[in-house]
Structures are given as C-alpha cells and as structure tokens.
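The protein record passed on for reference:
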Amino acid sequence: MKETLEAGAFGLLAGSALLVGAVLGFAVRFPRLVIASVMAFGAGVLLSAVSFELIAEAHREAGMVPVVVGALAGAGLYTGGNVLLARRGARQRKRSGHVRQQPSESQQAGSGLALALGALLDGVPESAVIGVSLADGGAVSTATVAAVFISNIPEGLSSSAGMKSAGRSKGYVFGVWGAIAAAGTVSAMAGYALVGALSTAVMAGVMALAAGAIITMIADTMIPEAFEDSHLAIGAITVSGFLLSFALSHS
C-alpha cells in the first residue's frame, strides 16, 4: 500500500504541472513562437524519456518481441481513441488558437466533452508510466517524473490558451485540468498495482504499450503545434529538451 500511495503522489505531482500550464495559458497571452518553443521542448523531453526509460528498459528485460508488440498496440489504441474523439471536435485540443482554433460548443455541440476526454486520453499513459517505473525498479524514476512534469506545462499552456480562444469558461478550463491531474494520480497508482504482479515479459510489453501511446500522442498533437508556422530554431529546442531528459535519466 505504501508504494501504491507513493506512485499516486508522484502522479499527482507530475499532473499538477498541467494546472500550472493552464493558469499560464489562461492568464497570459503568450506570443505564438513562445508557445511553439515550449511545446517543442516538451516533445523533446518526452521523446527522450520514452526512449531510455521505457523502450530501452523493456528491451533490456524481455527482448525485441514484447517491445514491438506492445508499442504497436499502444499506438493502435491511442490512434483509435484519437480518431473517435477527433470526429467529435477534439482534433485541435493541443492548439493554442494562434494558427488553428479549437471549436466552440456553438460550432460543434459536444466538443467540450470531447476535448476533456481527449485530454484524458493524452494524460493517462504519461501518468501510468510513473507507477510502472516504480513496479519495475522498486523506486520511482526521477527522470520519468521530471519528464512528465516538464512536458505537462507546455501541454496545459497551449491547450488552455486554445480553450480560452474558443470561448471556454475559466471553470471549464481549470475543471478539465484539475480532473486530469486527479486521473493522473489514479493512473500512476493503477500502473503500480496492476503491473507489479505481471511477469517480466508482460511488464515489458505494458511499458512498450505506454511508450507507443505516448510517441503517437507526441507526433499527433504536440509536434504539429510546435512546428506549424514556427521559427527555424524549433528543431534545436526539441533536441535541447531531449538532452535534458537524457541527462536526468543518466544522472
């Protein structure tokens, strides 16, 4: 029970960054290039964490087959959920509103719920890996928690700015991100409680599944906002985020 609560506490810590980003995105109108830059940095951080904390570790423990099967399954599950939500108005949920705008409720009925579910779809795999890392190594990976925390700030910032631009209320914006932070707590606890009893090969497959879902989310929602109509330094900023996460995982 102690370890489960520990996983939940770290999941809540990482998820709280979404609220930090939401406050910044709702209260301050940042220039488009600033939002693109922080989103690119967050994408680089997550890509590194997924590569070294999940994929590499799963491969070390169980070989290539569980990694490939798990990652493809994660990508497929995320894509399926994303397609369904995109049809209901959640396609632009990470957009800040500078280039492409999220739909308002009057433009597409039910888009508010779809946006909330989309945020949940994005946040659950990130939080679950915190619990998985605890179950796998006996201690929560500092690099994983730091990577999720750092990447959650630009995610919350850009998305809440887009929600505000689409006419969403303050109560809706902070309600969504507060609920996602709470869901992240539960996801981290479930990641530890459910995965800890699995065999090594299955655990590796679950780690790869989460990695596949996160990589797909990065490519589908974070990178487009970072790179569309942005400055030429975005690639270097992404690499900087990647290297920071790499340094944390090897410190």
